Amino acid sequence: MEKSINLAVLILAAGTSSRLGEPKQLLKLKGKTLINIAIEKAMRLTSNVTVVLGHKSEEIKKDIENKKINILTNTNYEEGMGNTIAFGVSNIKEKKVLIMLCDQPLIPIEHYENLIKLSNKNEDKIICSEYKKQYAVPTIFPNKYFEELQNLKGNKGAKQLFVKYEPRSVDLADNFSFDVDTKEDWQELLKNS
């Protein structure tokens, strides 16, 4: 698949990883940090890749500063995911943004490509992933939703937009949606990958 010109990828990597006890962005899976796994996938989709850091930003920045990406630091990251999305989207100029997390390393590149293909057929629709019987990220938002994304606050992410608007979705197998929040999650991921 050719790289998308009108699409930006926004990788959210600002959280404190409080339940894990160490920055999940720097955990290594098969020799690569989770943040680098996310960046490499994003760079296969578009040249417009932005990473939003927050907690331990200087430490994480050292791991990714050689990449051809935009690195932003959200100084208000402790206010939660909504705040980080709002901050990140306010720096996006493209027609659409694909929001992804750095702690879902098992999502295959084909899933992201399928989101983009569906988005190209439904230009003004929100295109989200669907797993565990709910809509979730990774999600593509056209720029007509940017203002609402920029008004998100606190720890409420973009799910409220899924309720307000009828998104289209691409199924993602539950095992691919696995995200790392705790040491137990991490051990399970290492065991099964």
Give the topology, please:
Layout: E1 7-13, E2 28-29, E3 32-33, H1 34-45, E4 49-53, H2 57-64, E5 70-73, H3 81-89, E6 96-101, H4 109-121, E7 127-131, E8 134-142, H5 146-150, H6 159-164, E9 168-171, H7 183-192
Parallel strand pairs: 1-4, 1-6, 4-5, 7-9
Antiparallel strand pairs: 2-3, 6-8, 7-8
Structural description of this entry:
With 193 residues, this protein is α/β, with parallel strands linked by helices. It has a single domain (7-192), classed as Spore Coat Polysaccharide Biosynthesis Protein SpsA, Chain A (Alpha-Beta Complex). Helices cover 33% and strands 23% of the residues. The protein is built from seven helices and nine strands; from the N terminus they run E-E-E-H-E-H-E-H-E-H-E-E-H-H-E-H. The strands form two sheets. A seven-stranded mixed beta sheet has the order 5-4-1-6-8-7-9, sandwiched between helices. A two-stranded antiparallel sheet has the order 2-3. A hairpin with a 2-residue loop joins strand 2 (28-29) and strand 3.
Q: Tell me the strand percentage band.
A: 15-25%
- Tally of individual helices: 7
Q: Tell me the span between the first and last alpha carbons.
A: 26 Å
CATH architecture: Alpha-Beta Complex
Strand order of the largest sheet: 5-4-1-6-8-7-9
Helix content: 25-40%
Kindly report the CATH topology. Spore Coat Polysaccharide Biosynthesis Protein SpsA, Chain A
| CATH-defined superfamily | Spore Coat Polysaccharide Biosynthesis Protein SpsA, Chain A
Give the helix/strand class.
alpha/beta
Identify the CATH class: Alpha Beta
